[in-house]
Amino acid sequence: MSEATPAPSTGRSVLITGGNRGIGLAIAKAFLANGDKVAVTYRSESELPDGVLGVQADVTDQASVDAAFTAVEAAHGPVEVLVANAGITKDTLLMRMSEDDFTSVIDTNLTGAFRVIKRASKGMIRLRKGRVVLISSVSGLYGAPGQVNYSASKAGMVGIARSLTRELGSRGITANVVAPGFITTDMTAELPAETQKQYLASVPAARFGSADEVAKVVRWISSDEAGYISGAVIPVDGGLGMGH
Fold first, then answer.
1. CA 90, CA 101: separation in Å to the nearest integer?
2. Domains of the chain (ranges plus CATH)?
3. Phi-psi label, residue 38: left if phi above 0, alpha if psi -120 to 50, beta otherwise
């Protein structure tokens, strides 16, 4: 007697770039709980939850991006939900910011998003469906001292999402931006207590957000319930940016 064939998964193929920690990992866990087939890219090895496929990738290198997508497609099928989350910071005031400080942040955060979206769109166009979510920041809409490079990269994501919406909206593909504010992560936890206090004073909700709160918004905007929303910017910032 032959062994019973396992039932095929009904979940979608989801890929989150930079999904091995912080907000990206919370997003991965949210989709996993939803029954989706989840893959994440990472630059350095880290422990991932059971059921999450990790693929090493450098979003500044197109060949590396292509190899990662090939691995995910072989395991889970064409990517149906792409979350462009990979990002870096090199904060410093404008007069001290080197050209490399600027261009390296743009190349990872913005051009990196372009590379993965272009690669994912091939499969989405064939499927005539897809969800693209770009993880921006309140800094990209509101501005922040010392973040000319980071703010520019995150603001650019809005232009990508809206241009994608006009190009691919008729193919059943949506593209939206989620813009977190101050979220409790390892990075924010390392900030001096006085700095955290100053940030907190500027948030109408009077608390920092959690990575799970961002993840649930990303999961919802990727769902069938949000199928008629595209080109939108959704702040998850406790009222800090007031939609700017």
1. 6
2. 13-236 (3.40.50.720)
3. beta
Choose the catalytic residue: 42, 142, 150, 199.
150
Tens digit of each residue's pLDDT (9 = 90 or more) over 40-81: 999 987 789 999 999 999 999 999 999 999 999 999 999 999
Non-local CB neighbours of 210 within 8 Å, separated by 6+ positions: 26, 183, 184
150 included as an active-site residue: yes
Q: Reduce the DSSP state of residue 104 to 3 states and report it.
A: helix
| pTM of full prediction above 0.90 | yes
pLDDT band at 9 (very low <50, low <70, confident <90, very high): very low
181, 135 Cβ separation under 8 angstroms? no
Alpha-carbon dihedral of residues 93, 97, 102, 103, nearest 10 degrees? 180
- For residue 211, which phi and psi values (nearest 5 degrees)? -60, -35
- Backbone Cα Rg of the chain: 18
